[in-house]
Amino acid sequence: MNSSEFPVSDMQSNQNVEVDHRMNVSVDVALFTVRNEEFQVLLIERGINPFRFQWALPGGRIRSDIGDGETPEETAYRELEEETGISKDLVGYLEQLGAYGNPKRDPRNRVISIAYFGIRPMLDDPKGGSDASKAEFKPVNEIKQSLAFDHDEILSDAIDRARAKLEYSTIATEFCGEEFTITELRKVYEIVWGVSLNPGNFQKKVLSSPGFVEDTGRNAESSSTGGRPARLYRSGSAALINLPIRRN
Amino acid sequence: MNSSEFPVSDMQSNQNVEVDHRMNVSVDVALFTVRNEEFQVLLIERGINPFRFQWALPGGRIRSDIGDGETPEETAYRELEEETGISKDLVGYLEQLGAYGNPKRDPRNRVISIAYFGIRPMLDDPKGGSDASKAEFKPVNEIKQSLAFDHDEILSDAIDRARAKLEYSTIATEFCGEEFTITELRKVYEIVWGVSLNPGNFQKKVLSSPGFVEDTGRNAESSSTGGRPARLYRSGSAALINLPIRRN
DNA sequence: TCTATTTATTGTAAAAACAACTATAACTAT
DNA sequence: ATAGTTATAGTTGTTTTTACAATAAATAGA
Predict the structure, then answer these.
(1) I need a labelling partner for B89 at 20 to 30 A (CA). Which of A59, A85, B120, B194 fits?
(2) Which residue is nearest nucleotide C4, judged by alpha carbon to C1' distance?
């Protein structure tokens, strides 16, 4: 009996009855951003039971009645748009976290969930609040009540993954806007990791990593508090960096 | 509309008809080992269509008629046993790789697959061939024909993951038996990565990583080819190592 | 027994990377 | 002009890496 088999006679189970093993498959998304000097995640408040009035990650079932069938990634973007009003082009990065298959994770019936974590950059134009019911970015350190379903576990894994990827990948740039300064990039690390990094050493590390950032040739406007205006960079072509950024 | 919803009226899709979105969910396993100085993966030959007579990763559907429902991990162990005769206690390590949800990955109907990668240690007693139909360890570098379904992609991802984890984790010890020498451990790295590593530097790196290996106090029997007998170690308590092993 | 060979393990020195710190550059506000 | 502020470049000692040399402990054959 091989993977992906039709629901016909199951030789291994020694029973020649046809058993329907189909189950619901959903997608949940942990969409992160850095706003207001905080590491935040997008949550929605559930309007129906179970877990009514509790906060949850946005998500929903993979639909089989759209085109030739949705990919899980398409479901992720669709549900984000439907539940929070955030359209695909406002999501800078999306990556699969894994499948969550505890048989009791949904109290009603069997649901497998495929979890994603994504990053929304700091946007220049806030675009106003979405018209969807109740969706908010919440600081991850201030989420006290437990989330619906097993979303505590999913969120915890997503936070771990995001923090780990900062070390050896360039995804930190996804938190920034189109153009950013090295200090803005360093603040992403500091806020997501909850540490403080040496500015000089961070700068040298980033600039010596080939393809991490790309010089725009222009400077940012100097802030009203004074100080030398910082150079503006954009995201480079590299996805990975050979020498990791360390958390101290 | 939230994740893990009942198949009742779908408000977001603006249609008050009940649509059954359930689908088959299967588990596929890439089980690796190092045998005969080669990095090998366990494959089975399919006995039925589609992809009859093609090689595939072992796996099968998550069953809802076992107990209160199987977890995907339980499915992985069950299918390994059923299809290849390898029982759970012969698998040293198992970790989820991710979900594969291309709507066309199975030509018959929609199947989501949750992929795992695992490691089987070099065993002292080979236990003889399994009675299952046709299951063999194949060197990953010698798999020329494409595998069934999207198993090429899954295997490729599994190989990447296994190779990457050698750098910063202690899973290399899972390829070894209960007790092993530093040279045996180094050979795992060399074979899986396809590189050659400096013996002295490797030794120092491993022994200076706290919890990587644990001294048994005994030596291996010296081989017939001569040479100083190597010290025997067992796997330590650490799962991660702070200073990575590099591929050169 | 002696010697060459083999493998494991330890030592050493140059090079690279890191961490902490200092100096300079380029701005604002008074 | 001067002080304060932020960005960026330089400096120095320490740790880590890399390449290579030396020693240890065995086997095999003369």
Answers:
(1) B194
(2) B226
